[in-house]
Amino acid sequence: KDCKDADLIIEAVIEKEDIKKHIFKELDILCDKETLFATNTSSISITRLALVTERPERFAGMHFMNPAYIMRLVEVVQCLRTSRETIGIITAVAEKMGKIPVVVNDFPGFVSNRVLMPMINDAIYCLQEGVASREGIDTIMKLGANHPMGPLELADFIGLDTCLAILEVLHEELGEKYRPCPLLEKMVAGGKIGRKSGEGFDEYRK
To answer: For position 169, which CATH number holds?
Structure first.
């Protein structure tokens, strides 16, 4: 009911393709035909999500960086059916939010996670193999690469479950290079998923 007359709906639910598809099927029925749909997915195909609706030309990705209230970048993702008008509107909305939109094409992980997730995954491999401590790995990347957060600290911030979900998509779509580290899989299975659970590669107890 609240969505019926919206001009733009931005979906930001859990990174599960079946759940996102179900939501967009429902929204497609409920919303006006002119309503634009955007998804905040980190890695799932925009094209596959768009094609469950009757408005693929009015569908795009709007991938906010984490944390969205601080990070200014938004990847605006166009699929094969997204119209130029839709991209123009989504870009303008992002700018009104104070963001810097960058238009990219629909490929697994887009640009940000296709580059970022292998780095995080390799950092976890370094920890698993005893190359350095958590503190050492993060300090090297902060001081050596001028990153504001080390990769393990960032993974905890994003959520290890989210990192694993993204890597699973990249592994399936792009191959062996993106296979998730066994330590990451073990930690997620054990419920140690970062800040939101109170423990990941570091502890965040109150």
So the answer is: 1.10.1040.10
